[in-house]
Amino acid sequence: MLKKFVLCLLAVSVFVLTGCSKKEEKSDLLATIKKRGELIVGVKYDSKPFGFVENGKLQGYDIDIAHLMAKRLLGNENLVRFVEVTPSNRISKLNSGEVDMLIATLTITPKRLEVVDFSVPYFYTGQAIMIRRGTSIKTVGDLNGRRVIIILGTTGERNLRYFAPEAILQGYKSYQDGFQGMLNRKAEALSTDDAIIAGFVMEHPEFMMLPQRYTQEGYGIAFRKGSETLSLQNEVNLAINELRRKGYLNYLKSQWLPSFSENFKK
Ligand code: GLU
What domain range is 203 assigned to? Predict the structure, then answer.
């Protein structure tokens, strides 16, 4: 009887153990990506110079990072499929499984860390203010009582509510629409990351970026939370650290933001 019981117990253990290891294997996203032979990345299509379409080509700093990740994970930088995301839908597109990761000018914040995991930072930025040249606005405090464009779902929106609580916010869903609002004089200022403003100001010299930065933020690659993405996160962090060590992140910055030098700093 005892022998039968022990045998039975053994059989159950083997079943449970093999079942578990199969499950673990199945739920490892890095293994799934390798099997699929394609990395699926959520990127912006309207945030020059990070992710934008010009002459029919999707390009930018974040797009280059995505190609580098495909090379690292799959040995070929072209094995990447891009899915457009916006500030309002990017986290739900990640958490619903539509994309493997987000490389989408996404600032690492404690609030976002409650719902996604982040890589180490790959780019540093800060909130800045863009105005039409000749406007009397000098600091974030001057925005109180004035119309200011923000992009919904961004750190710019949240920060401005804190730093200029009496600003009259005009929320837009995309950068394209937000910048168009400035061109159409719908507001006196626009607030977002300095690197994104730099991309716009480079092409529209009638606008300028104020020297003040009222936050410091790091962009991270975002992953779904959970053990499924841990090996992917490790590999991506190793890749970012290596790109930084080899000076490649600085090279990318000089390529995509050539004028993002001391002119744009404090
Ligand atoms: N980096 C900021 C954020 O994560 C603004 C840029 C963006 O929304 O893409 O909210």
Answer: 127-209
Residues with CB under 6 Å of ligand 1 are: 47, 87, 105-107, 151, 154-156, 192-193, 217
Summarised one tens digit per residue, pLDDT across range 178-224 is 999 999 999 999 999 999 999 999 999 999 999 999 999 999 999 99
Q: Quick one: 53 and 113 in the same domain? A: yes
The answer on 134 and 115 residing in a single domain is no
Q: What is the pTM of this model?
A: 0.88
Do both 227 and 106 map to the same domain?
yes
Q: Rounded to whole angstroms, how far apart are CA atoms 130 and 132? A: 7
What is the whole-number distance in angstroms between the Cα of residue 139 and the centre of ligand 1? 20
- For ligand 1, the distance from its centroid to the CA atom of residue 140, given in whole angstroms, is 18
Q: How many CB atoms lie within 10 A of CB 31?
A: 15
Burial per residue of 81-98, b for 16 or more beta-carbon CB atoms within 10 angstroms, e otherwise = ebbbbbbeebbebbeeee
Q: Of 153, 159, 255, whose CA–CA distance to 199 is shortest?
A: 255
Looking at the structure, do residues 139 and 107 belong to the same domain, yes or no? no
Q: Quick one: which atom of ligand 1 is closest to the CA of 219?
A: 1
Residue range 61-76, pLDDT digits in tens: 999 999 999 999 999 9
| Ligand 1 atom 9 nearest Cα | 105
Closest Cα to atom 10, ligand 1: which residue?
154
- Ligand 1 atom, smallest distance to 125 CA: 1
- For residue 243, being part of any structural domain is answered with yes
